[in-house]
Amino acid sequence: MKWKGKILPIIFIPLLLGFGYWCFFIIVTNPNPKSSDNLAINSENKLNSHQWKDGNQSIAQRISFGEKILISDDVSPGKKDAAKDILDKNYQQAITNLESSLKIKPNDPEALIYLNNARIRSGKSYTIVVSTPIGNDPNTALEILRGVAQAQNEINTTGGVKGVPLKVGIANDDNDQKICQQVAAALVENPEVLGVIGHYSSDATLAAGKVYNDGKLVAISPTSSSVKISNFSPYVFRTLTSDFVAARALANYMVKTLGKKNAAVFYNAQSNYSQSLKSEFVSSVSLEGGEISGEFDLSKADFSPSSSIEKAFKQGAEVLMLAPNGETLDKALQVVQVNQKRLILLGGDAVYSLKTLEIAREQALAMVVAVSWHINGNPNSPFPAQSRKLWGSDVNWRAATAYDATKAFIAALATHPSRSGIQKTLLSSDFSTSGAAGSIRFLPSGDRNTPVQLVKIVPGKRSRTGYDFEPVLEK
User: Fold this and answer.
1) Is the sign of the CA dihedral 172, 174, 178, 180 positive or negative?
2) Distance CA 336, CA 298 (A)
3) pTM for the whole thing?
4) pLDDT in tens, 95-147
C-alpha cells in the first residue's frame, strides 16, 4: 500500500489541470451559455452588453429602444408595461400599451418613438440614436425628441426608407462631456447604429465628436452652434446655424438697422458656445464699424447685474448683447430686469426661451434674438401645422432642428444606407432635402448652409405669457 499515496497525486494533477482548462474555455469563449440563441442579436441587446461605468449608471442603462423608460416623470401604466413587453419581445402587447399611453398623453415623444420601434418588431430596419440631456434638462430633451419622433413617425407611416423602417434609440447623456464620450463609444461599437443625432451643447458635441471621428460614425447636432465645430471633423454636422452667422446678423442689425455703434456683451467664459458667440459678435461689430465698450462674465462669483449695467452705461454702451448659455440664462434675465429698457437688447439663441417671456416680460419688449427657426418664419412650410396636429401644441426651434437632423439621415439612408455612404452623401455638393427650417444642405465644414432668422419680443397670446417672439420683417 506504500505506492498508493504516490500514484494517486500523479493521476489527479492532470485531471485537475484538464478540468481547469475546460472551465476556462467555456467561460472565456462562451460567457453566455445561451449565446447560440442570440446569434440574430438586435440593436438594443448589443448596446445593453456594454458596461462602462459613469459612477451612477452603466452606459447600457442610459440607452433604450423601448425596453426601459428614460424619462421617468409622469409615466403612464401602459408605457411602463410596454417597456417590459418590448424586453420580452411581446411586440403586439407593447403596441397596444403604447397606443393606450399616447391617448392619455399625446405629447410624449418617447412613447411615440418606442411605438414605432415596436411596430418594426424584429424585422429589418435602419437604426439611428438620438442623445439628449434627459438627466439634467428633461424639458430640452423632450423638445429634441419631439422633432426626431415626428420625422420617424412620418417616414415609417408612409412605407419607410425605400421600404425599410427607421428604428430610433434614445440615449441620456446628461450633457456631461465624459458621459457623452462613453455613449459615443458604445454607439460606435454597435455596427447596427448608422448615425447619431446629438449632442446638446457645443462642449458635449466637441467632446463626443472626437469619438465619432475616430469611429467614422456620423453625428448631426441639432443644437450646437460654436464656431469650433466648423471643420472639426468630416463626421460631425449640425442643422443649427453657426455662431458666426448669428453674430454677423445681430451686428449688422445693430449698426445698419438700429444705427447704433457701441455695445456691451454679457457672456459665460466657462461655456464654449457662449465664448464663441461673444467673440464672433465682437469681431462682427468691429467689421461693421462699431465698437465694444465692455465685456461682462456672467459666470463670475461676484457678478452683479446692477453694477455691470451702470458700468456699461457710463462707458457709452447703447446696446446690451446677451450671449449666455443655458446655465447662465437666469443671470442674463436679471440683467434685462435691471436694465429697465434703458439700453437696447440683443440676444443669442439661448435667450430664445419661454423662460425669457415668463420672467423678463415687459422689460424684454423689442429685444431682438438670432435663431435658426421660428414657427412663423416660413409660411409655406407644412411642418408647423403637422407638428401642432401631432403634439397638440406648437413646438420650438429645438424640435425643428432635431426634425431636420432626422430628415437629413433619412435622405442619406435612401441613397447609401451605410456609415460611409451617409457621410459621403451628406458632404456631397448635390445633397439637399426639405426640412422644417427650409432646405437642408451642408457646407464642407459640416455647417448647415442656411441664413439665420431674427425675431423680436412683442405683445402676443401664442405663448400664453402675454408676450411672443415674432420674426423681424425685412424693410
Assistant:
1) positive
2) 13
3) 0.85
4) 999 999 999 999 999 999 999 999 999 999 999 999 999 999 999 999 999 99
